[in-house]
Amino acid sequence: MERSSTRIEKEKAGSLSYFGKETFMGSIIIKNGVVLTMDKKRAVIPDGVVEIEKDRITYVGSDFGKATSGISTTMIDAKGKVVMPGLINGHTHLCMTFARTVCFEVNLMDWINKIQYPLMDEMGEEDYYLAAMVGCINNLKNGTTTIEDFICSSHKGGVDADRPTARAVKEIGVRSVLARSYADQNYYENAIEKKEMIAARCREFVQEFHNTENGRLKVRIGPVVPWACSGEMFQETVRLSEKLGIGLHMHANEGPNWDVLVEKFHGVPRNIGLYRKYSCLGPGTTIAAMRVISDQDIMDLAETGTGLILDPAAALNRGTGLPPIPKVLAAGIRVGLGTNTVGEDMFENIKAAGWIARTVDGSPEALPLNVALEMATIRNAEILGIGDQVGSLEVGKKADVIVVNLNKFHYSPCLNVLSGVGLFGPGRDVEEVIIDGRLIVKQGRVVDLDEDAIIQDANARALFCAKKAHLENRLSPLYSAKLNG
Ligand SMILES: [Zn+2]
Predict the structure, then answer these.
(1) 36 Cα–ligand 1 center, Å
(2) How many whole angstroms from 92 Cα to the centroid of ligand 1?
(3) Is the backbone of residue 103 left (phi > 0), alpha (psi -120 to 50) or beta?
């Protein structure tokens, strides 16, 4: 069989293929930085100190003497830098990383059905693992410490992205909500599963991964798109969610034709109306990537307390509608942000949320900067049901912290730190990333990880799969990988 020769294939499954042997644990003190706490008072502390012991924050303030750790192994000097809670990406698809640069200039469903799924048809378990690794590292290096990943892979040959994705997020140590999607009708052939199979696989996935890894890993489930699930599957979805005690995650109204498709296949005039009909809405549900939102949709989401994850950068990229952000916020809907595969930089989404809000509203005050930042931190955490654990820097919370370097021309002179981060902040200025008290990114590089090997392997394997999927005329690869080595 024609194979590419990558390091990953030479390693035994389950081993830490790209990691060395260094341990990351230890107490950490971050000093001299401007601390954006995102706590209830939204306190900003100049020359602040954040102390971390094991997986928890033990001090946040301005008095270095009160940081009590006598066994600190790591001291981070954050002079000229911002110390803030790790960002939370409320919606993406790590399994789609391989084809993300291929032919973006087509409509969404063509991109899904003619590019993404055909390429995923050719991916093996190790490829899905590698795709998730690349996507995770990209998120990490842009300051994201929690990812809600909507897994929607092909099932050709009995292979899918469920376990490889879980393996990648476990190994890297990123906090994750893995939402397993499914379809039992009207969808890409190799992505359709039988109802009984869906229920069994969801149960297994929940039992194996939900609330594991020191509570860092959680699981949700949900139909991939509304017309791809039968009414019976919607009923089963709610039964499973209640029985397993897990939340739901679903796409809705990602384009102007979604309500039409829902009416065609379900006889219900609105996407959100369909979800309400089957009792899928509620505080434990996150609805992702809505761009077309009617007044009736707003009422349904507000009345049911459903979480809404908007994807401003992806929405601008696709051109399929701009969500009325000020209106949904004014209605009291809980709103967060996600990347939806585009860029994996939550700072871009903080900025893009402001651009869209001001464009649809016509007012410079349409989205205050601190609210946009909240939508990528504490509000997102609350929507995912982990607001008591992460999303702000407070004593007793889990230590998910990032350090952003503002000593750059694109911030200077920085007379307002909030504007610096919220208006100009690119993710690549993130230097340190700490998750669960582990220093995972140090000076912009993932600690003790062979980053170059991952990039090389991902390029080789993605090219191999794309050629097998007959996408040659869509490619202009950066590397000409030797495929028979
Ligand atoms: Zn999506």
Answers:
(1) 29
(2) 6
(3) left
